[in-house]
């Protein structure tokens, strides 16, 4: 088929244009569907395992769809591991990080995008440059600072940094505010609105696309973060969902059905948010990746 | 700067003050949580320090020991460089290939895009645990599927000779994150270029090499730099799945750094490791930047910049 398409300009095609198009599309669907299957197998396997009994897990060849489905695994898991507590702890961190980012990001981005002050370009460049610094360099001194302040084993080290605004989010927001017409600000200023009123009443309501990205990615980063909770939290009662899962693995290494049930519950919030938000996200993130 | 300040009108001065106020959250964070720690880390890397006692100045001794007399460090460096050399080019090529497929003008492509991007939002311990189970040599789905076509699957994470490759394969699951960025790059290529080439009789292959690839190089370049930085910092998945084993086959840099800093509390030694990693990343980035004018195509000059 492809050969026919290649040589089409040189000799008369064997197949009519409509047929070639049809075959081309069929082939595209076939390849894409096969790839999509490969990409989805891990998640399906996780679901399948989570619905098996302890013994069915070891059956060979494995069953793809367990009959009967052992839904009680999802009850048993809560008796073994305080998943609700871990999820609740993680939600506290998510809310804290959201408040921090939503406070700092619009403020900083707006100041960089709209207000003139000496040194603005240098500082903005500096902010972009900090995105290149590997976090390992600041990780150890930050730990010692929080340790001196007696804040290890609290949520402060895991929430406070959000109140300074993530440079990536600030950059994203800054690029978006730049595309909004300046006339909006000027008109509001003539009407007597101050700088902050313009930000919160005129600009921010127009910034839904970048704000969606900030909210969703803050949720994902915080929910998935493992290294920081691992470093800062010691009390099991304060563990996040990722720490809880890591510990569960050590304790119940062989009970794969329960482990997969717990894993599925841990990724479920991510999946739900993804399906609601993906339309707003993929394009927005891609356009930033493009500009750098 | 003070002179500029004096020459400013009251209104401009007010605006500047508001500007500083606006960026103050970031500025405070930068000074206290980035710049300060960077300088502190540089100092710590020249000390022997177990976090309890006061740091003891030892000059470059940490660096010298790491580079000349620490087999575990040499191993970590070797494993990480191997991983980077395998994972980064593979991710680039596969991501690009996937984006070309996603760019086909076929109905329902949104659904496929959603599926391929999905893994990019799933990470952390949960997904690492899922991968242990998927690639389990005896009960995993991968070896099950392989056995259906008559192939005896390897022991993946459980065998020192395949463990690192397994991590590379696992990371490919996240390739949709890159593909979507290439896709946006592809969709920015003006269609009239293809139309003109088609009229000149260029076939698909020629169009790819002479239009698509050159115009995509700025995107490829940025992805190369970010993928490089990310690959050096792999932690969670290997920590959970292999813990660096078997026989240190997946002994990544970050695992050793974490062990030294937060299990052994050799804060000075770990800081020196962080700086060596930074220097490696910076040097590699500079090399990529330097060579970029030979292969990155800039549209406005109309030719490869010299």
Provide the descriptors you would attach to this structure in a database record.
heterodimer; A: 292 residues; MetI-like fold; disordered N terminus; B: 306 residues; mainly alpha; 2 domains; 14 helices; disordered C terminus
- What sequence of helices (H) and strands (E) makes up the elements of chain A? HHHHHHHHHHHHHH
User: Describe the biggest sheet of chain A?
Assistant: none
Helix share bin of chain B: 55-70%
Q: How many domains of chain A, as an integer?
A: 2
N-to-C CA distance of chain A: 38 Å
CATH superfamily of the largest domain in chain B: MetI-like
Q: How many domain units of chain B?
A: 2
SS strand fraction of chain B: under 5%
The computed structural class of chain A is mainly alpha
Query: So how many helices of chain A?
Result: 14
Shape of chain B: globular
CATH architect. name of the largest domain in chain B = Orthogonal Bundle
- Tally the helices of chain B: 14
- CATH homology-level superfamily of the largest domain in chain A: MetI-like
The helix-strand sequence of chain B is HHEEHHHHHHHHHHHHEE
Please tell me the CATH architecture of the largest domain in chain A by its name.
Orthogonal Bundle
CATH domain fold name of the largest domain in chain A: MetI-like fold
Beta strand count of chain B: 4
Main interface by residue count: A-B, 100 and 96 residues
Structure description:
- The complex is a heterodimer of chains A (292) and B (306).
- Chain A contains 14 helices and no strands.
- In chain A, helix 3 (73-80) crosses helix 14 (256-291), helix 8 (167-179) runs antiparallel to helix 11 (208-224) and helix 11 runs antiparallel to helix 14.
- By secondary structure, chain A is mostly helical.
- Chain A has helices at residues 2-7, 17-50, 73-80, 83-114, 120-130, 135-148, 156-159, 167-179, 183-190, 195-203, 208-224, 227-232, 241-251, 256-291.
- Chain B is mainly α.
- Chain B has 2 domains: 2-44, no CATH class; 61-304, MetI-like fold.
- Chain B contains 14 helices and 4 strands.
- In chain B, helix 9 packs across helix 11 (204-232).
- Chain B is globular.
- Chain B starts with a helix and ends with a strand.
- The chains are: A mainly alpha (292), B mainly alpha (306).
- At the A-B interface, helix 1, helix 2, helix 4, helix 5 and helix 6 of A face helix 2, helix 5, helix 6, helix 7 and helix 9 of B.
């Amino acid at each position: 088929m492809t050969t026919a398409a290649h040589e089409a300009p040189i000799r008369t095609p064997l197949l009519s244009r409509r047929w070639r198009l049809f075959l081309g599309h069929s082939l595209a669907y076939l390849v894409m569907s096969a790839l999509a299957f490969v990409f989805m197998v891990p998640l399906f396997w996780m679901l399948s395992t989570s619905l098996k009994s302890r013994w069915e897990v070891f059956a060979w060849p494995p069953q793809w769809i367990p009959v009967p489905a052992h839904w009680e695994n999802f009850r048993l898991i809560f008796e073994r591991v305080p998943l609700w507590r871990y999820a609740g702890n993680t939600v506290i961190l998510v809310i804290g990080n959201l408040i921090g980012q939503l406070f700092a990001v619009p403020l900083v981005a707006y100041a960089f995008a709209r207000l003139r002050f000496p040194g603005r370009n240098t500082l903005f460049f500096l902010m972009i440059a900090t995105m290149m610094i590997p976090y390992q360099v600041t990780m150890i001194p930050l730990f010692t600072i929080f340790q001196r302040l007696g804040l290890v084993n609290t949520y402060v080290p895991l929430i406070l940094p959000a109140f300074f605004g993530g440079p990536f989010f600030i950059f994203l927001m800054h690029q978006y505010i730049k595309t909004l017409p300046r006339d909006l600000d000027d008109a509001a200023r003539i009407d007597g609105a101050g700088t902050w009123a313009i930000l919160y009443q005129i600009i921010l309501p127009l910034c839904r696309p970048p704000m969606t990205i900030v909210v969703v990615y803050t949720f994902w980063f915080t929910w998935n973060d493992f290294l920081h909770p691992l470093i800062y939290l010691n009390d099991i009662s304060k563990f996040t969902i990722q720490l809880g899962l890591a510990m569960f693995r050590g304790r119940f290494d062989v009970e794969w059905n329960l482990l997969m049930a717990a894993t599925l519950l841990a990724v479920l919030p991510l999946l739900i948010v993804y399906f609601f938000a993906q339309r707003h996200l993929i394009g927005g993130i891609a356009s930033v990746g493009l500009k750098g | 700067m003070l002179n500029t300040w004096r020459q400013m009108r009251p209104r401009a001065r007010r605006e500047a003050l508001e500007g500083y106020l606006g960026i103050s959250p970031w500025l405070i964070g930068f000074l206290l949580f980035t710049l300060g720690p960077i300088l502190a880390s540089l100092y710590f890397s020249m000390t022997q320090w177990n976090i309890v006692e006061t740091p003891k100045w030892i000059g470059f001794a940490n660096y010298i020991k790491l580079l000349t007399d620490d087999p575990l460090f040499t191993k970590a460096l070797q494993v990480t460089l191997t991983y980077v050399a395998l994972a980064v080019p593979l991710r680039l090529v596969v991501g690009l290939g996937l984006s070309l497929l996603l760019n086909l003008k076929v109905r329902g492509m949104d659904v496929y895009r959603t599926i391929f991007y999905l893994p990019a939002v799933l990470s952390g311990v949960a997904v690492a645990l899922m991968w242990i189970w998927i690639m389990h040599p005896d009960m995993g789905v991968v070896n099950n599927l392989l056995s259906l076509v008559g192939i005896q699957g390897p022991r993946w994470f459980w065998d020192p000779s395949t463990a690192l490759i397994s991590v590379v394969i696992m990371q490919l699951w996240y390739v949709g994150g890159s593909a979507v960025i290439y896709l946006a790059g592809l969709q920015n290529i003006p269609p009239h270029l293809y139309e003109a080439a088609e009229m000149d009789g260029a076939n698909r292959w020629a169009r790819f090499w002479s239009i698509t690839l050159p115009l995509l190089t700025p995107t490829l370049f940025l992805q190369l730099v970010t993928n490089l930085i990310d690959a050096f910092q792999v932690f969670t998945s290997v920590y959970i799945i292999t813990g660096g084993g078997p026989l240190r086959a997946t002994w990544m840099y970050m695992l050793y750094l974490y062990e030294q800093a937060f299990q052994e509390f050799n804060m000075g030694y770990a800081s020196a490791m962080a700086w060596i990693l930074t220097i490696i990343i910076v040097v590699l980035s500079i090399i990529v930047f330097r060579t970029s004018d030979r292969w990155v195509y800039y549209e406005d000059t109309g030719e490869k910049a010299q």
